[in-house]
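[job 4471] stage=fold_predict status=RUNNING
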Amino acid sequence: MKPAVFSHFFIPALAFAALFPLSGCRQSTPAAPQAAATTTPSLSQMALLGRDIFFDTSLSASGRQACSSCHDPQHAYGPPDGLAVQPGGKDLKTFGFRAVPSLEYVLNRTPIWTKEHPASRTEQLTERENAPVGGFDWDGRFNSLHDQAAFPLLERSEMANANAADIAHKLQRSGYSQAFEKACGAGIFDKPDAAFDCMRRALERFLLEDPSFHPFTSKYDAYLDHKATLSAQEEHGLKLFNDPDGGNCAGCHLSSPGADGSHPLFTDYQFEAIGVPRNMEIAANHGNSFYDLGLCGPLRDDHRDVKTFCGMFKTPTLRNTALRGVYFHNGRFHSLRDALRWYVERDSNPAAWYPNGESYNDLPPELRSNVDHINVPFAPREDKKPVWSSQDIDDVIAFLNTLNDGYVTSK
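[job 4471] inference complete, writing structure tokens
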């Protein structure tokens, strides 16, 4: 199954759901984590430059917005608040239409499209090898992190720079301009496109090299290393999470170590349409003409004609998901409990989540058949009851809290 239910991660997530963009920001920016001084001496020259860039508010049109303003290191490199979408633009009053994902656990991974596009939605759901996978951002449209970095820097609803020359001029005036020239070459500021490209490569190296983006310090990591024991509630939550006939979360949010013993990232990087309710907190959704179709656009246009992909978004990592204040690609839910309740009640109690009985209302009617109603927990049950009780949801939340980094093992 592919329940891409929890945001942003950039990421990821990669982005990793990393996998994801340097999206809109708030008015102030946090400083680099205090621990950075002790964890980054081994960073390359390019990664150190990327760190300076990541926390620099002067690189935005408003002068008050940095990458870290939304991808806050104190919030697992995700949004610092529960806003569905973050403000940006020249006056910080412009909004996009997607939630900010986390930049933790990012991978430099390109999209893979195996075999031919499925002829039908059923074929796609039953033959997972045909499903699109990889890339960065909610729609996977970027093939690398440095490609991804270009979007928020130039997007009018985010950092809102006019062009590469505008950014190069700001870099030349920065306090790290000499370090930039040293890393990117003498006279680099006379070549705006080259300066812009070097800046993006520096951001990429920072995300890939700095250990704060992939700490693997959760209780679950300690549990896998036999250095911690899960409580009875956490154990039961893990069982529910993994149960292919229950929550089936691990069908997409992979929870088992890799063949080489590597710890799981809780995403398979694939895409799925799960029918998240329309979020009326987003201004673009106030009319009936706009739909965010993920792989089909509006930001991505190379798969616009593959109608079976419409409404599909990438599965984010669930690491640190319990720390978020906003969930799913459109930020529809602001608590983990509500996200999980919707996940198991989507079709058993649709009136609780969709107005006027209009299920999957964030897709145009002709595309709603794309929504997964075959895989557990979305497959119909004879008793028409959700697969989890309220207590089960409590237990799954307890387990998901073991994915928060920063756990200290007892000596």
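[job 4471] summary: The chain has a mean pLDDT of 87.
[job 4471] exit 0
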